[in-house]
Known about the structure:
mainly alpha, 3-stranded mixed sheet, 10 helices, 5 strands, globular
Amino acid sequence: QLWCFDSMQSNSSANVTFVRPATFFINGFFNIPHAKYYYVFLSLVYVVTVLGNSFIMCIIYLARRLHTAKYIAVFHLAFSDLCGSSALIPKVIDTFLFEHQDISYDACLTNMFFVFHFMNLQSFTLLVLSYDRLVAICFPLRYHAIVTKPAIFLIIGVMWSFSMIFFSVFVGLVNSLSFCGSNVIDSYFCDYRPVYSLACNDNSMNILMGKIGSSLLIFMPLILIFISYFCIALALLKIAHGVDRIKAIKTCTSHLILVAIFCIPILSNNIASLKTPFDPDTRIINNSLTQTIPPMLNPIIYTLKTEEVMQSIKELYKRRKENTTTERRIKCSRRN
Length: 336
């Protein structure tokens, strides 16, 4: 598919002209029968993601015992998961289930920014939670002095500022490209690499930013998480009593599962693609599942694997039940 060109921007001093399309065409799957069923599946994933993350945020908001620095970070993870899925899945459903595969140039870049921004926040929040566990186990007596609510709010604020500035530059560099040929994006959303690969001028800066973005999203947080758990392991070896050691390990299990669910699929995809290039359909399925399944599973894991959350749910349910019983008694007494 060839596009009609919507705008040309020239820089007279440098005598440079940038050619931009009116729209991109998001291609999606190649010749897969019944592909719409996959998008219906993604719709169900999105519903579970919205319900699960909304539930965990409500529990943290309502339960006083969860009004701690750690659960501010957990709340932020649920919020990032919810926003990340909302930036991606509804657009995918609209694009392919309702066959709106043309997307304007500006809308494409906006979608790209929000998808990568919230993915980055998810990754950074997992790093913050590993920092929480590091301080809790290695410096237990100073934990409440170091990991405070203002400190977590400050870290989250810095994360947002850094991520927004970086991905504004990241996406903004697409404007330095000229698109002279096809406007077909071989992906399921406005992905960075498939977009800059369409350029007919030098895209070396975009390639560099893509590598830096991958490092920020995956490798840097993963390396820092690994270092933090190495320090935690050393601290656990110094604990004399086995019972205390097991108790400390249990406080890390939910976070380790979240890290594994987020990082392992992304790393597997990247390593596998280096050895054997995926066909486009396999790449789309792998990448879409990698981006959509973790936000759905995170609240389920935190609910089932974290004792404090389960206890808070039971207390809220018990309180709700008692309030309902009291209301019924008052209504009965009024009738009598």
